[in-house]
Amino acid sequence: MTRNILITGATSGIGMATARLMAKAGHNTLLSGRNTRALESLATELGTTAHFYPADVSDYKAVQGMVAEAKRKMGSIDVLVNNAGLGYFEKLEDGEIEHWHRMVDVNVKGVLNCLHASLPHLIESRGLVIQLASVAAHHVFPNSGVYCATKHAVGAISESIRLELSGKIRVSTISPGAVNTNFINTTTDPAMLKEYKDYFASSMAPEIVAEQVLYCVNCPDSAVISEIIVRPNRQNK
Q1: Of 66, 64, 30, 32, nearest to 49 (Cα)?
Q2: Mean pLDDT, the chain, whole residue set
Q3: How far apart are CA 45 and CA 49, in angstroms?
Q4: pTM for this entry
Q5: Is residue 55 within 8 Å of residue 118, measured between CB atoms?
Q6: Whether residue 147 lies in the annotated active site
Q7: What is the pLDDT of residue 183?
Q8: Cα–Cα dist 230/208, whole Å
Q9: SS3 for 37?
Q10: Closest to 156 (Cα-Cα) out of 120, 115, 122
C-alpha cells in the first residue's frame, strides 16, 4: 500500500536516507528541512512522488505551513517521521547555554510542534508516528547530558502517544546508536571533536536506520512495532 509520508530533517543523514528508501518503496513523501537547495535537489532526484517544504521545526508557524503543504500535495498524512534533531558534545561545566537551548528547541519542541500540527491529520488517516530517538533515550553518557535529556523526552512523548491515542494512531520509536552522519560536526570543542569523529565515522550507515523506518511503515495495521534499538556491531571492527 502506498503511504503519504512527512519526513523532517530530510536534507542529510538518516532523513535523506529515509527519503530515498521511501521513494524506492513507492511511497509519496513531503521532505522538510532548513536547507532549501538541498531539499530541492533531493526532491528532483526522487521524482514526482517527492515534494518539499523548507521549515525549521522549532518554528511552530513554519511547521504549520509544512503540514498544510503535505496535506495539500499528498491529500493525507499517513506517516510522520519525526527525525529532525541535533546534539552538542561538551562537558556540563563548559556547556554553552545557547547549545542547550537549541537542543531543547529542536529535539523536544520540534518534535512537539510537528506532532501537534500533524495530529488531526494522523487521527483522520489512522496513521503512524515514527519518532527518531537514540540509545541516549535509555542511557546517559558523559559529555552529552543535555542531549540525553532531550532524547529521554522523545521516549516519554512516544509513550504518551501510545497510552492516550491507542486505537487512533500508532507510534514507533527508533533508537539508533552511533551513525556515520554529520551529527558530530556541531561539536565546537576541538579536542572532543577529534575524540569522537573517528568513532562516528566507523559506525552504522544511515541507510541501516532508514531500513528500520521502512520496517515500521510496512508493519501490518493489526500490529505496532513499539521500539527498535539498533547499534553498530563493534565486533566487526
Answers
A1: 30
A2: 95
A3: 10
A4: 0.95
A5: no
A6: yes
A7: 82
A8: 9
A9: helix
A10: 115
Instruction: Specify the residue for cell string 538541498.
Output: 38
Could you tell me which residues are beta bridge partners of residue 170? 128
Quick one: pLDDT at residue 200?
A: 87
Helix axes 206-217, 13-24, angle to 10 degrees: 50
Q: Which three cell numbers stand for residue 165?
A: 491515542
- For residue 2, how far is the Cα from the chain centroid? 21
Copy the grid coordinates of residue 28.
509519496
129-157 pLDDT, tens digit each:
999 999 999 999 999 999 999 999 999 99
Query: E strands, the chain, where?
Result: 4-7, 28-33, 50-54, 79-82, 128-132, 170-176, 227-230
Residues in CB range of 11: below 8 A, 6 or more apart: 31, 33, 34, 35, 38, 39, 42
Is 4-236 in CATH node 3.40.50.720? Answer: yes
Catalytic residue among 88, 147, 196, 215: 147
Residues listed for the chain = 237
User: At a CB cut-off of 8 Å and minimum separation 6, what does 198 contact?
Assistant: none
Contact 54, 39 (CB under 8 A): yes
For residue 58 the three cell numbers come to 522549532
Task: Report yes or no: 200 and 180 within 8 Å, Cβ to Cβ.
Answer: yes
Q: Which residues of the chain have pLDDT under 50?
A: 237
